[in-house]
Write a structure and sequence with these properties.
By secondary structure, the protein is mainly β. It is 6% helix and 52% strand. The structure holds calcium ion (3 copies).
């Protein structure tokens, strides 16, 4: 009986390895009620966070030879740079199998595991140095302040440095009614020649929200980075660059799927002195963004 089971398991594993090219390993493999396995992404799909659920078959100790089934589910999760990915065997012609596979995202090249998927890391522009990646696990008060919007709305329900899937980030979450906003405020000024880059991870949202940057100091501009219906609102890590040029604020946004958006905003003063608020405004029921990997010139 056991030998019979091992053969399809072996074929299933080999088939996965061949089909996705990446170095998947099998963490868990179980027999499921045929056809009961469903998942929200596409099998061994490292690019998209997903979840899997199935009726798992458990042999009964008595009477011998009989089985029970129990419902089970799992989300794709990260442990450091290792992705644990649920996959249904029916995607690969094995409706009676389901597995949790693991993949070290760094083996794909310039990838890291973030929020249940392997995502491409955007290398920082040349000549930039790390400002903060929150790897200390707490907010460095010499580098940052947490601020309300200059318009005075209350702070969001959650904010602070948190470990999200093995990586410390600055986490902002709003999950109650009302218009709430939280910003990270770098304790430094910017002027002509300065650059500031970061990763802005739009994790989830329902209805009204905006990833926002406020330019303050010698000029005041409210800058929407992501917002549904007006600006792109792709889920995932956005790579944002602010470059202060002579009388011009050059903004580059690279979306998770690689779309590049460039904006140039007129700065009225020559070599003005500016500060930045970087954060999230939400007036819908839920919005979650994480900020990480700030680089500066
Ligand atoms: Ca999957
Ligand atoms: Ca996946
Ligand atoms: Ca980090």
């Amino acid at each position: 009986m056991k030998k019979l089971l091992l053969i399809p398991i072996f074929i299933f594993v080999i088939f996965l390895v061949v089909i996705v090219i990446a170095q998947w390993n099998v963490a868990v493999l179980v027999n499921v009620v045929p056809g009961s396995c469903v998942e929200t992404d596409n099998g061994a799909d490292y690019e998209n966070p997903g979840s899997i659920s199935a009726s798992v078959i458990i042999p009964n100790s008595y009477p011998p030879g009989t089985n029970s089934s129990v419902p089970a589910s799992a989300d794709d999760v990260c442990d450091g740079d290792v992705l644990f990915e649920g996959a249904c065997g029916n995607t690969y012609g094995y409706p009676g199998l389901a597995g949790i596979l693991s993949l070290n995202c760094s083996e794909l090249g310039n990838y890291a595991c973030q929020s249940g998927a392997c995502v491409a890391i955007q290398p920082p522009s040349q000549n930039l140095t790390l400002y903060d990646d929150f790897s200390s696990g707490s907010l460095n008060n010499s580098l940052w302040e947490i601020r309300q919007d200059v318009e005075g709305q209350p702070l969001t329900d959650e904010y602070g440095v948190e470990n999200e899937n093995g990586n410390f980030v600055f986490h902002i979450l709003k999950n109650s009614t009302g218009d709430k906003r939280t910003y990270l405020f770098p304790n430094r000024t910017f002027t002509t020649g300065d650059k500031f880059e970061w990763g802005s991870n739009l994790v989830s949202y329902q209805d009204g929200f905006a990833g926002m940057v406020l330019l303050t100091g010698d000029q005041y501009i409210r800058i929407g980075i992501q917002t549904p219906g007006i600006l792109p609102d792709e889920i995932g890590v956005w790579h944002i660059t602010f470059e202060f040029q002579q009388n011009n604020l050059h903004i580059l946004r690279q979306s998770p799927t690689g779309t590049i958006l460039i904006d140039d905003l007129v700065l009225n003063q020559q070599n003005g002195i500016y500060t930045l608020y970087i954060g999230l405004a939400s007036w819908g029921p839920e919005a979650h963004m994480d900020f990480d990997n700030f680089y500066t010139s």
